[in-house]
Amino acid sequence: MAVDAAVATAGIRRGPGRPRDEDIDGQIIAATLALIDADEDLTVSRIVARGGVSRAALYRRWPSLTALVAAALDVGRTVPPPVDAEGDLREAIVGSLLGDTAAATSGYSEARFRHRIRLVMADRTLQKAYWSSHVSRRRMPVEAALRRGMEGGILRGDLDAEACFDAIAGTVYYQLVVRGDFFDEPATRARVAAAVDVIWRGMLA
Questions:
Q1: Angle at 82 between CA 200 and CA 103, to 5 degrees
Q2: How far is it, in rounded angstroms, from Cα 144 to Cα 141?
Q3: Collapsing DSSP states into helix, strand and coil, what is residue 109?
Q4: In 44, 64, 85, 124, which residue has its Cα 20 to 30 A from 28's Cα atom?
């Protein structure tokens, strides 16, 4: 899906002739993001009007408005690479988690980041769709590294890798979502580091 190029050229239309499929994909995503950024109601009618495409074209690519919005919210994010667990496991895992969080917040304007949180919190169906189609995939490299640490005797063998991920990542999201702080502020990062130290000590074998 040629999303990034489409977002960069949102609002630009091609000349005569049938657009390539990837162009239509990008127009639909760009239109959806434009509505999100403007904090406007997200409806199929608004999206197709803004994107200059048909309802049929939209539904050929996404089975529902929920699936489309979940895809749009994830623009610019990728699955992190495997975590290198050969050296300092804690640093590798925390670096991967915090790096992904920093990429998430820097890839969006603050307005888009907060709109994303508001949208998924206000709509449980969208929240679950976004989790299943996108968020859960990005956890896999860190969870795999945690399991390797358990198997190698670095971490306690009775740990739940998913719960460990939640605990570490939760320290970051608490700062951003509950406290309303910025991730790149030194005080924020210091609080996250202190919380992660407490969690990590409880995970060690």
A1: 80
A2: 5
A3: coil
A4: 124
Buried b (16+ CB within 10 A) or exposed e, 67-94: bbbbbbbbbebeebeebebeeebbebbb
* DSSP 8-class letter at 177: I
Which residue from 5, 21, 135 is spatially nearest to 71, judged by alpha carbons?
Answer: 135
By the 8 A CB rule, do 27 and 72 touch?
no
Place of tokens 């030194």: 186
Half-sphere exposure of residue 51: CA atoms within 13 angstroms, side-chain side: 29
46 to each of 99, 138, 144, how far by Cα in Å?
35, 30, 41
What's the gap between Cα 201 and its chain centre? 28
Quote the pTM value.
Answer: 0.75
Residue with tokens 């989790």: 131
Separation CA 56–CA 53 (nearest Å): 8
By CB atoms closer than 10 A (0-12, 13-18, 19+), residue 15 is exposed
How crowded is residue 188: how many other Cβ atoms within 10 Å of its Cβ? 16
Tens digit of each residue's pLDDT (9 = 90 or more) over 156-180: 999 999 999 999 999 988 998 899 8
Convert the pLDDT of each residue in 182-196 to its tens digit.
877 899 889 998 999
